[in-house]
Amino acid sequence: MDNVSQKPERRYDIDWLRVILFGLLIPFHVAIGVYWSTYGEDINPNITDDPDDRKEIAEEGNDYTYDSVDPTSMFLHWMHQWRLAALFMISGMGTAFAFKRRSWKTFLTERLQRLLVPMFFGMWTVGFAGGIITGSADLEGNTILDTLIAFILHVFLTSFVFWVPLFGKIIALGHLWFLWNLFLYSLLCVPIFHIVQKNVDGNLATALRSIFTIRFGLGIFILFPTLLAITELVFKPWFPGFIGIGYEWVWYLAFFLFGYICIISRDRYYEFLDTNRKVITVVTMLLTITFVIIRLQQHEDGVPYMDGGWIEQGIFHNEMTVLSCFIHSFHAWFWCLTIFAWGSHLLNKRSSSLTYLNQGVYPFYIVHMPITFAGLKIAKELNFTGIPAVIAGCLIVLIGCWLVFEGVSRTRITRYLFGIKNIQQKQSVVTQDVS
Questions:
Q1: pLDDT per residue over 115-153, tens digit each?
Q2: Contacts of 196 (CB under 8 A, 6+ apart)
Q3: Could you point out which of 9, 66, 287, 403 has its C-alpha 20 to 30 Å from the C-alpha of 264?
Q4: What are the boundaries of each domain within the chain?
Q5: Model confidence, pTM
């Protein structure tokens, strides 16, 4: 029987990849504040007050925006295409492990506690701190009472705005949107998880696992990325992907489900990765070259082929938009395969530090943004620019997050608020919740 419940050993490669991919949040979010001015020019170390310098940068066409084709900006844009997709796949994998010994009611209760509690707590507290650092919440001259009132108003405002369709979570959640999407995906997919759990050899479970047995690997090499491309073809013209909305909402849902399918097909999945690891890597490199070419063409044409939302320019679909949807999805999918193939080959090793690192993922994720803002401001004050600014910012964020984690991990209530899972030694070998 090819089912996850029959093979309960833990996959340490998934844990390692979760730690590594969440860890990339820090340099990525610091770097986009330096090279894209994502958080505003006031805290971007690269932006000077010299009008001549700023005019020269603008004339080069590589000013600090997401559309820049500066090599560093291109590198960040490339990383953005697969990093979150891989994290949603890991979340789907963790869900497959977590659901095998839980009822659907227990599973959803745990999702509420592990996802929504830290999400709302972070929205109210970390979001408020970030607003103070960036200046959107001006508390200068405020008394303690004034600050308390401002915080209460922030809690009420974000709690109300959060429910506004599409744009509510942009304003209220910021970087915490990942937790909300993950909860919605878990809720939406519970019927699938329940059916597979109760009928491990039923039609649905058999059909999902059979994808790995399609001849020549076409199920993995062609079917999965084509399904991703279809979601782009349908949704991408209307709205650009941004913090998990627009086409990204359905796109990331597909990655989440694909991760789940991989683990319920576990033996076939890992055998496929082991057999095709070199082929996957070569194809990924070729797709990366194609991705870069289209990204450069996007810059030249001024049409957001990779990003979406081109209906505003009077385009529904043309040859370039259709090609871009397929290249974008295949590129992201094959990078995920490459990461998991090499992770399976190199990282499925137990380590005494892995449990500690795994517990730090949520606290680091929740608090890293306001510390990122602070790190960028400090780098700007020190007149650091470019790579030195990124390095300084990353060091500040790492130290700050680590101090917060060490503090909040020491009491039951703060562990609960920051989504830190208690370690149960007897279950650590047979269960795996990496979502």
A1: 999 999 999 999 999 988 887 777 777 788 988 999 999
A2: 202, 204, 205, 208, 264
A3: 287
A4: 4-417
A5: 0.91
